[in-house]
Design a protein that fits this description.
By secondary structure, this protein is an alpha/beta fold. Helices cover 39% and strands 13% of the residues. The chain is built from five helices and four strands; from the N terminus they run H-E-H-H-E-E-H-E-H. Mean pLDDT is 81; it is low at 140-152.
């Protein structure tokens, strides 16, 4: 089965990686935004300790969710952040990858599990994750038993 997921279009006049284009896609009705937590946190806050990077990343995502009602899922590597997900934060879902699994794979699996009509935005600069998420959109979700995606 081929995926029917369509990319979120950026209106004419907006540069694809501009702040205005980013605002447009995170405000898209029904979109789910996946944030590669440590990828974003380490790039944005390189001088902070890991825990502070995580907290700042989550705070930024909370601000976006509060401002535009965006459905945001922040995925971090590892289980060393237990308790963060259970804090007062309720506007974003914060999750940690299970032991032996990287956050990238959690993002890939969650994107593949969404219905085709749900627009998806992945915030990362990891080119492998970007390529895989695009492939999921073109070829449909992975088969739950084999992990393989059907070809067109």
């Amino acid at each position: 089965r081929s995926s029917q997921r369509q990319p979120i279009g950026v209106p004419g006049g907006l540069y694809g990686s501009s702040l205005a284009a980013a605002e447009h896609v995170v405000r898209h009705p029904g979109a789910v935004v996946f944030v590669d937590g440590y990828n974003v946190a380490k790039l944005r806050f390189p001088l902070l300790e890991l825990e502070a990077q995580r907290a700042k990343c989550i705070d930024l995502c909370e601000d976006v969710a509060r401002r535009w009602g965006t459905n945001i899922v922040v995925v971090f590597d590892g289980t060393n952040g237990l308790g963060i997900a259970a804090t007062v934060r309720r506007l974003v879902r914060v999750t940690f990858s299970p032991e032996g699994v990287i956050a990238d794979d959690v993002i890939r699996r969650e994107v593949a599990s969404l219905p085709d009509d749900v627009p998806v935005v992945v915030v990362t600069n990891d080119q492998a994750v970007i390529a895989d998420v695009r492939a999921i959109g073109r070829h449909g979700p992975a088969h739950p038993a084999t992990g393989r995606r059907p070809h067109r």
